[in-house]
Amino acid sequence: MRYWRALPALLALATGCAVPLEDETPAGDETSSLESSVTWEPCTVTARLLEDIHPGAPGSEPEGLVRGEDGLFFTADDGVSGRELWVSSGTGDAGTFRVKDIRPGLDSAEPNELTVAGGRIFFTADDGVHGRELWVSDGTSAGTFLVKDIHASPLELGPSGLVEFGGRVYFAADDGVNGRELWVSDGTAAGTFLVEDLYPGGDVFDPESPGSSSPRRMTRTPNAFYFVANVGRDVKLWRSVGVRGAIPVFEAPEDNVVFSMTPVGGELLFFLVDNDEGEASLWVTRGTPRSTRELRFFHGAYPHDLTALNGRLYFSAGRARGGLEGEPAGEELWVSDGTERGTRLLKDIHRGAGDSRPGSLTVMDRRLFFAADDGRRGRELWVSDGTERGTRLVKELEPGAPGSSPTELTAIQDTLFFSAETAERGREAWVSDGTPGHTRALTQLAPGPTGSNPSGFIRSGWDVFFSADDGEHGRELWALPFRPKDRCGR
């Protein structure tokens, strides 16, 4: 057992209570079900470079950061082995190292879609022999292996759309016999098999070939998962509980696009539908065809940043100016309770026809944080309690236009991590507890106004990880110690 697996027990001993190491949030729920009385905080304002994986200016470009039982998993290119699977214990003693050179030599295995299921990391990779297939890892080289060679041809697209449900991973794959359909895996060859052939008939353009429903956009909820798949000339939104018998809850002609599925409160699933006009309608379902209904059509740009909070959906969208249908107006913050009447503009932040363009919506402490431009103070950090009156500016970080333009908003325990840009410091990492007095910048990583452009904030163990470019090492992996209050110095 690696030492960082013992951290939960060590933490419980240190604090005298059982504390979850990871702040898990069940799909479809806006807040963690593992409530803890322990308050976490950054132990310092200075992040640490963990490893110069690819020495020199290019950097290793860490991607796909996910939290596993054995630390933080990610992909990186060290300039010698190509892009492969890596793991890090953060500021702990175990270090940062490559898990396995799946495709030996300079060529890259290009691990993709890293997904935690059953205590292991599932992903797709190309070892140069089998083509892109499903792999699994326990964080060791010996425990990282090809699960199953699903398609004999190395040229096949490979598995895609990985989602965890019930401790197993579900995905789309083509075995060369049944077309591209829904599969499942428990990490063994015997436990990797076709769940359901949703489109068993021949392709409309080639009756001799198997039909492919091409499952995609997998979205997990507490009791099921949803995905989009085609049958013949129809596109459908399906609900599955992981066994044969998935049901379509919505269907339309194949030129429609169904996307942005967002679970709210464990029962509702909101989604968008573009009926081939470049604009979208907001829909909702409770998991049955009868409960599926359209809420509102939005002219202009797609609604975006769909986010669940306190049983409602919040999102950014335009509205019809003066009530004239088809005439777009400002892009503002909207809310929906799942009814037509309850789908409405929450606040006109940039009054009139201007756009406040709310973005990077994220939830912390039952409040909604986002970036917006009120037309006077530039694009800055805002917060909302779900009411018009309770939607306000948190702090003006860079006075005047265009503001600090916060991005990468990530709530970790009761601390908001984000990237913001100022004239003197460039784009660097910031933290906030949601109040002006405790919204502050971390130590600048790249001297001067260039900025390190931090991204991908994620917690694993006793650290918050992110990638950044300090101007000397290229884009590499950094970590900031983040522990229970009063435990930082121990």
UniProtKB/TrEMBL annotation:
Residues 1-20 form the signal peptide. Keywords: Cell projection, Cilium, Flagellum, Signal. InterPro entries: ELWxxDGT_rpt (IPR030916). It comes from the Bacteria. This is ELWxxDGT repeat protein. It comes from Archangium gephyra.
